[in-house]
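User: Hand in any protein.

Assistant:
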Amino acid sequence: MKEPGNKRPPLAVALRYDGQHAPRVTAKGRDRLAEEILALAREHNVPLQENAELAGLLAKLDLGEEIPEMLYLAVAQVIAFAYYLSGKAPAVPDATVVE
């Protein structure tokens, strides 16, 4: 159990998604570096989402590494959240609906 005042150090992980390949880890850090990553994201209006478990898994990846397939769904939800907050929608290929 956590004791009051013993807050875990902040962790931040930044991802880049180009719409063509799996997202890549572009920055990660704890403590002061995490605060700098978050400040830079805020400065550039990059949407932020808190998810300690996902951040912990992503932080194990090397910089520039694509996320593994097992994290696709979780990261897709983060990307969808970011698009929603930004008022953007990803390009959707033409589709045919069949009854």
